[in-house]
């Protein structure tokens, strides 16, 4: 049995849903404003915010643990623990926002990840208290204990990101495996006006939407967690052109560029070039999202 197989068992433990589901519902009730959710997901920077902030929190705590080993460095270690505690607030907020839009298996691991981090923060609070009372060695002991628990929490977070693909770009493969050459997908007139439709191009599914003689084509697999976008709805994107709304967690993508209007997705949908030849619609994958087609 490999150590991380046990984490997979956590993901397959429905008993955790008794905690995970109410927590998810509470986050949805608290986080109502779309602009706040988008900010916490990291839509504004095109990358999940939680792992970026976690660098500061984990880095501060780990550095404090090392300084506590060295002579005459307890004061900077204390300052680093204080920085870690303050940065943990936005780090946790961003994490909870992502958690609420995860799937069940991710949320089961997520509650254990959050519990470990909660214990870690309690340990660091005890460490700061001991240091404030002049008991610096006791404070260092609390700090090392908290760091050990935090390492478990961070490992669980890494498992969620790398093994369960939470926060990963699920449409990343399109520019690599979608056909670069023009590929026939059927008669252009067969497509109904404004209807999201799925077409297969080479090995990949594509969402196609017709507007008169204009055809929009995006990767059908949502960048957030692989939902089929052709089952979503087409809406007006607040003055940013027509958009598709993901049927699972409500990410909104522009039809013309694939860019993210609202999260939880932070990566844009890969797009396809379109043309009509002899009444037949042809598609070819564009380069990496945000990079002009050659
Ligand atoms: S799969 Fe979650 S927003 Fe699309």
Structural write-up:
The protein has 294 residues and is of the alpha+beta class. The chain folds into 2 domains: 5-162; 174-285, Rieske Iron-sulfur Protein, CATH 2.102.10.10. It is 46% helix and 17% strand. It is built from 8 helices and 10 strands. It has helices at residues 5-11, 17-30, 34-41, 49-67, 74-100, 104-132, 136-162, 174-177; strands at residues 183-187, 197-201, 204-211, 214-219, 233-236, 242-245, 252-254, 260-262, 272-277, 280-285. The protein has a 4-stranded antiparallel beta sheet. Strands 1-10-9 form a 3-stranded antiparallel beta sheet, with no helix packed on it. Helix 3 (34-41) packs across helix 5 and helix 5 (74-100) packs antiparallel against helix 6 (104-132). The longest helix is centred in the middle third of the chain and has 29 residues, at 104-132. The protein is elongated, with a radius of gyration of 23 Å. It starts with a helix and ends in a 9-residue tail after the last strand. 42% of the residues are buried. The model has no long low-confidence stretch (mean pLDDT 93). It binds FE2/S2 (inorganic) cluster. The site of FE2/S2 (inorganic) cluster has 10 residues, from loops. The chain crosses the membrane at residues 77-97, 109-129, 141-162. InterPro entries: DUF2231_TM, Rieske_2Fe-2S, Rieske_2Fe-2S_sf. Its cofactor is [2Fe-2S] cluster.
Provide a brief overview of the structure.
InterPro entries: DUF2231_TM, Rieske_2Fe-2S, Rieske_2Fe-2S_sf. The chain is of the alpha+beta class and 294 residues long. It has helices spanning 5-11, 17-30, 34-41, 49-67, 74-100, 104-132, 136-162, 174-177; strands spanning 183-187, 197-201, 204-211, 214-219, 233-236, 242-245, 252-254, 260-262, 272-277, 280-285.
